[in-house]
Amino acid sequence: MSGATVPDPAAPLTPSGNLRRRQLVSRAAELAATAAAVIAVGALAIVVYTVVARGAKAIDLDFVFTGYPTGVGPMLLGTLVIALVATVMAMPVGVLIALYLTEYSGARGSGALRLTLDLLNGLPSIILGLFVFALLVDHKQQSGFAGAVALAIIELPLIARGSQEVLLLVPKGLREASDALGVARWRSVLTVVLPTALGGIVTATVLAVARAAGETAPLILASSVFDPKHFSVNPFESMPNVPVWIYKLSEEGNPEGFTEAWGMSLLLVSFILFASLGARALLARSKRKLSS
Amino acid sequence: MSTAAPTVRVQVSTVRKRLDLVGDRALFGVCLLAALLAAAIILLVGYQIIHGASPAISKFGFAFVYETTWQPNFGEFGAGSLLFGTAVTSAFALVLGAPIAIAIGLFLTLLAPRGVRGVVGPLVELLAAIPSVILGFWGLLVLAPFAQAHIEPFLHGTLGFLPIFGRPETTGLSVFTASLILTLMVIPIIASISRDLFQSVPPELQDGASALGATRWEVVRGVVLPTTSSGVVAACLLGLGRALGEAIAVSQVIGAGSELQASLFKSGDTLASRIALQFPGALTELHKASLFYCGVILLVIGLASNLIAQAIGRRFSYQGATAR
Question: What class does CATH assign to B61-320?
Answer without folding.
Answer: mainly alpha
